[in-house]
Structure formats: C-alpha cells, structure tokens
Amino acid sequence: MAKLLNRLCLALMGILFAASLCKGSVFAKEIVVNGQNIQAALDQAQNSNEVVTVTIPAGTYNLSSPLLVYSNTTIRAEGADITVNGAQTALTHSRYIQPANIKIIGGTWRSEGSKVISFDLSTSNILLENLTVAGSSNSVGIFLQSVKDSQVNGCKIDGMAVGLKMSYCTNVQISGNTITNSAETGIFTENTERVTVSGNTVKQSGKYGIWFDWENSSVIKGNTLDGCAIDPNRAGHGEGLVVQHGEGTWVEENKIYNVQSHIPNYGNGVIVSFSKSITVRGNTVVNSGNHGLQASYASTNIYFINNTVNNSGKMGISVSRGSNADLTGNIINNSASSGIVYDGKNWEQGSGRVSGTVTNCVIDGSKSEGIHIELADVTVQGTTVKNSTAFGVVIMNNSTADFVNNVIQQDQMDSAASGIVINQGAKVTLDKNRISNFGNSGLIQNPGGVVSGTNNQVMVNANKFGSNAIFLRQEAAADKIRNNSLFIKSISGTEVTGQNYWLDFECGAVVNGVVYPAKTGDGGYFTIKYPQTDSSKVVVFVKDPAGNAIILQAPADFDLNKVQSGGQDQETDTKKIENFVKRMYRITLDREADADGLQYYVSRLQNGEVDGATVAQSFVGSPEFQNKKLSQENY
C-alpha cells in the first residue's frame, strides 16, 4: 500500500511539474490562407493567447473590405499582392481592442483609402517589415497613432501624399525604408517622443523630406534625402528636413541633396524652428535652393556641429528671427550669397535679435560675404574665411561681435575686395586675426561703427593697398586700432623705401626670418637697409602700439608674430655679431667701424660664408693694419 501511494505521489508531482512548465506559455499556431479568404485565417487569432502565424501564399488578392488583425498575430505575406478595393484601408485592427504583439512581414499592400496601413488605439509592440505600400497621391502609406515600442523596417512606399505618418507615438524606430514620390512629405511625425528615424531613403517629395513637429528626445540619423520640395503647385519654401516645436532631438549624419523649389532660391536643407536644445551634427547638405542649414523662429540652444554645406542657393548657414545657435567645425563651400549669416531683423512676433558663436569653421568661396552679422551678438573664434567675392566679413546694425584668432583671406590677391567691414553702430573687438590679400582694404570702419583690438595683421602680397589698409572713418583710441596705410616706393636687393602714416609706429622689413628696423623721416617716409637678397622675398611691415600690423609682400600664410617672437633670438645674435665686428675694428684698426664694412662682415658671418677666425685673419692681414708697422711687442 505504501509503495502504491509513493507511486501516485510521484505521478502527481510529475503532472504538477509539467503543468508548471506550461503555465503562462503561449503556443505557436500556424495557419495558411486558403483562397481569397485572408480574414477568416486572421479571425482565428481573435481572443487567443497563442501566437498565431498566418501565411498568405504568393499570389494576387482582391478584397472588398479592410483586413483586421488581432494581438499575438504574425502575418507572413512574401510574394503576395493584396488590393483592398474602394476608398478603404488595406490593413488595420479591430476597433474594439488595443492590439499588441503584431508582426507584418512582406507583401505588397494596395488601397485607394486615406490610409493604406493603419495602427492606433494605444497599439504596442508592432513590427512592419519589408512591406511594399502603394496607394493614391491623397493617401498616407503607413499611419501610426498612439503606438509605442514598435518598428517599421525595410518598407517601400511610393506615390502617396505622405509616405509614413506618426502621431502621439513613443519609442518607435523607423529604419531602412525607401519612400519615393510623396506628393507632400516622405516621413511626418507630430507629438512624438523618443522616436528614431534612421537609414531611410526619401526621394522626390513634393514639399518635405522629413518633418518632425512637437517632438521630444528623438533621433534623425543616417537618412538620405534627395530632390525634395519639387511640387510645382506649392507656394512657399519646401524643405529637406524640418524640426519644429522640438526639444532635445539629434539630427546627425544625414545626406540631403537637391532641395530645389520651382521658385528660384527656395528650399532649405535643414530648418529648425520654434525649438530648443537641438543638435545638428555631421550632416552633408548639397544644392539647397535657399539655405543649407537654418535656425529660425525663436529657436534656442541650437548646435550646428561638423556639418558640410555645399552650393547653397543663398546662405550656407542662417540664424534668424530671435534664435540662438552655436556653430562648431562646419565646412561651408560656394554659397551663392553669404557663408554664415546671423540676421536679427525684427519679425511679426517681436524682436528678432539673434546670438551665438562660430568656432573652428571653414567658409570658402561665398559669392557675397563669408560671414554676415546684423542685429546680433556673436563671437567668432578660430575660423577661416576664404575667397569671398565681395567682403570677408560684414558686421552692421548695432551688432556686437568679438573676432579672435581667425584667418580671413583670399588665396590670390584680390584688388577689389575688402576684409572686414563694420557699419551702422556695430561694436567690434578684434584680437589676433590675420586678414590677407584683400587688395582694397583689410579693415574698414564706416560712420557709426566702433572697433578696437590688438595684435591683428592686415597683409597683402603686393607693394600697396588700393585704399587704406586700415580705414577708420572715426579714429579709435591711441592704444587701440588706428587708421593707417603703407606703401613701398622703391625696393632693391639691399634697401626698401616707403611711407606710412605714423612716426610712432614700429616699421621694418623681414629678410630671411630676421627683422631689420626702419629709419623714419618726415611725413612717415622710411628707409630700411638689409643684407643682399631677392627683393621679392622682402616683407615690409608697420605696427601700431597695440600690436596691429600692416604687412606688404607677404604670402597668405605669413605670420609676423611668429617671425618676431622667433626673431628676438635672431636679433640678439645679430647684435652679438655686430659687436664682434666692431671690436675687431677697434682692436686692430684703432677706429670705429664704417657702415659699409660693418654690413659686409655682419652679412657674411650671418650667412655662414666665413667664421670669426677668418674675419680676424682678414683684419690682421688687411693693408690698413699692415701699414701700421707695429713692433713685435705691440703686435
């Protein structure tokens, strides 16, 4: 009896153990659609705790009503071409449930309804993968509303009004989809949070490539947008990528090409408006009809970092309408107007004054100014502005600007261009900037402007400027930048003559890295003598008490500060050589050195043609010394 009880107990324990393993498990169930009745197969998942996989065999299906999918359902439709006739949705879910755990894989889905595929009502954990979606130019291809924790991957959507639209969604990933020929927008999201749109291709959208509105903490990364804003019936700009009313979103590593409107010079590559704390990083924007990148409409804490913007129809990067944006490491080439613009003109909602920083950017080939600052507060540091057609930099309309350690240059001397122009109440501080090859003027301060600064270099690879090198219509304080010009009157292999405005300025020539000071006469005329050299290699400079220098015959990469800081030791060495030669004159010839003789020996010693011992032997062997007929004792 005891043995029988033990066996019964063991059997019961085994049953209970097996039940425990099965408790909460969801068994998989597979159904293959027979004929055209897809809905009958899907209905088997209704109220089921099982994972139901419905396979729709390859073929063509024409249906009269939308397909309704239930929770815990996987539809595999590779090779199936499904059309729902009439103005109806092709695939959605029952209105009486909040569906979850749904996968739709493959298939071509067609409908003339307002939405081809639609999920809403707090749907979660949805996967749409490798679908082909087709409909009318008035339809939405894939519509997601109040959806969370879901994915749309690898789908192809063509010819819709909006390819993919999301509203009130959270934690949704849209990746690797191809959306073409949308009448309005490729991908549109509103009131979303933590959405990632990555690796998608959007081509030939009528108005917008990607539009994010009222979103939070999302990522738009690695997408390719090409040929947006093409609708000929649309008024207004059209854009490649829009972030509006957003916060905390990253726009990075996207490629945006050919945002060209039917209206000339319309179409922005990327625009951020009414937003805050948006980072736009590592994007490439080419051939935008209007601006490459723009922060506008009271956007704040916008960061444009390491973007490349080429061939914009107007500005490369624009900050306007009360916005604040910091620009770092951007490369802007061949803008049809200005490379970077901070434009704070008023707009319909109030003051438009803008602000920000420009750091370590490169701006090349702008058809107007490299940088334009108007009604703005801006700091520009470590930036290179090259080859602007009209001006390197323009600052105007009561702006404040600090320029520190920038290079503003033309690669070739441009006789008509000017480097920095300050107008209409602008207050500008310049420090350690190099302004090169602007042949008209390096720096112009027009009435109402205020300029100060130290250690700037204004240079040109020519023997004069077309106007004043530094042209100040209102003279600055004596310890600041001062109005000045410089020209070379004559130059030879051993001497240069010229004129500058001020007698109290340091003036000199740089020859083979050595600074030779000028002798200054009346009217600012000067003469500089130096050892025999190629006259085309002689750099002539004048420097004010604040360290601001005007430099002639200087290549674009010349830096007087480096020459002078390195030249101090060289100057000390020159003095030592001069003193040695003077001592030789006194000791051997009992007289002071004549100028020609001193220059002869100093030059040969500096150039390494002779050493000190050879010079000493030369003095002792000279006829002047020998004619002294010294005794052995005196000798």
Protein structure class: mainly beta
Reported for the largest beta sheet, the result is: 21 strands, mixed
Mean pLDDT: 88
Choose one word for the global shape: elongated
Poorly predicted regions? 1-26, 565-571
Helix content percent band: 10-25%
- Total number of helical segments? 6
- CA-CA gap between termini: 142 Å
Please tag this protein with its features:
635 residues; elongated; 18-stranded parallel beta sheet; disordered N terminus; 44% strand; mainly beta
Structural summary, described in words:
With 635 residues, the chain is mainly beta. The protein is 13% helix and 44% strand. The chain has 6 helices and 60 strands. It has a 21-stranded mixed sheet, with helices on one face. It has an 18-stranded parallel sheet, with no helix packed on it. Helix 3 crosses helix 4 and helix 3 packs parallel to helix 5 (612-620). The radius of gyration is 38 Å and the shape is elongated. The relative contact order is 0.04.
Provide a brief overview of the structure:
The protein has 635 residues and is mainly beta.
SSE diagram, text form:
Elements: H1 2-22, E1 28-32, H2 38-43, E2 51-55, E3 59-63, E4 67-69, E5 73-76, E6 80-84, E7 91-93, E8 100-105, E9 108-111, E10 115-119, E11 124-129, E12 132-134, E13 140-145, E14 148-153, E15 156-158, E16 162-167, E17 170-175, E18 178-180, E19 185-190, E20 196-198, E21 201-203, E22 208-213, E23 219-221, E24 224-226, E25 239-244, E26 250-252, E27 255-257, E28 268-273, E29 276-281, E30 284-286, E31 293-296, E32 300-305, E33 308-310, E34 317-320, E35 324-328, E36 331-333, E37 340-343, E38 354-359, E39 362-364, E40 369-374, E41 376-381, E42 384-386, E43 391-396, E44 400-404, E45 407-414, E46 418-422, E47 427-431, E48 434-438, E49 441-445, E50 450-454, E51 457-460, E52 470-472, E53 486-491, E54 495-500, E55 506-511, E56 514-517, E57 519-520, E58 525-529, E59 539-543, E60 549-552, H3 560-589, H4 595-606, H5 612-620, H6 623-626
Helix pairs in contact: 3-4, 3-5
